[in-house]
Amino acid sequence: MFSESPSKLRKYLIMAAVCVPLAFATAWWLQPGPQATTSGLTNVYFLPAETYMAGEVDFLRDESGNARIDSILLPELPQQNVATSDFLSAGYLGAQTCAECHQEYFDSFVKTSHFKTSAEPSDQSILGAFDDAHRVLTTVSENLRFEMLDGDGEFWQRLLYDDGQQTHGVEFQFGLVTGSGKVGQTYLYWQESLLYQMHVSYLSVTDSWTNSPGYRDGTADFARPIPALCLDCHATYFEEVAGNINQFQRDNYVLGVTCEKCHGPGREHVAYHRDHPQEMTAHGIVNPAELPTERAIEVCQVCHGGTPVAMLQPAFSFRPGDRLDHFFTFSENMQATGVHSNSQLPRLRQSKCFQQSPDMTCTTCHAPHEFERGDLQLFSQRCQNCHDLPDCGKFGELGNTIADNCIDCHMPSRELEDIKISSQGADHAPLMRDHFIKVWPSTTAH
To answer: What is the reported pTM?
Structure first.
């Protein structure tokens, strides 16, 4: 049956006995983690993205209308998916390219919240802790908890569910980090080329893991799709894939709100100036400071002008200098706009400072290439470029001491009305600086 000698056959069998188990052991060791399985889990609901976005989840409440705990929401994936690409379209190159000629701006800008508002997952970009004392998030359900795992440069959220007999685990790998960390961070995961939000976020005020905003404590929700409109304010560019509201080319994006978000795609500009290194007049790029006032403001309004009520063009199609009303429709009811980073411009537009200053833009107070967050004295000095100290109603009482902090009186930090975070039996409402500049009796009375 065999042509080899018995001694050779014996050698082959010994090698097989050693190598085959070793190969299986190596494959097991190198795998990123246990494969996600729902075997044994109860109250599991697979939701299509459209169903989730439409809010058609009444089955998650009992007959009294109370939210059911122990419910696990997972995405129902479409049957068709696409391969990823390995190129950047639309002319985007990434901020590192800009550093070739603008190193000083680049070195300063990478420290800003705009730059950090999205990133690849890493030890530096993820602010939550993975040590044994902090990596577990419990919930109001005794049966359900979450565990954060890291190893070999990969990071995971593990859902642990007890069915009364055994504990089941389902793992989701960190795909992207969103949020600079001022208020917190939330995390996204990929299912092939489809993008979803993770259940567990990070809250800065408690320096701990927490349920993502709007998520019910005691449930596990991994079915929330991430549409392009969300990414449009957390990234410079993503290439959408038609057919699904949360499908993107996985190798075709620029993270962070970086140079090209405010100046436009840089490919033409870079190509020209590489060929004409002595040319000092910028070619193929937009300087927002040279735009008409309203066009300059609209560069910021894309992300700080309130949530659009309608999209007239695809996400990421607006370019600095365009008329924004050709791309988005915003609510005309400015008074209804709550305190939120995406509504800072509508709040500012209600201020007499803005209404009586025809040349005022966001950069009148903010230097976009610098990290200045929390420097109240610096921002107060900019207030005094237009306002004299003796004009303040508190000047007679406090004198020149008011010079160091106009901000807390006239732009107080207030709770976000539209964001509530429910975690471990407590509700948290993060604070945000209100950009409606006025005399606030609650802050000026003391």
So the answer is: 0.86
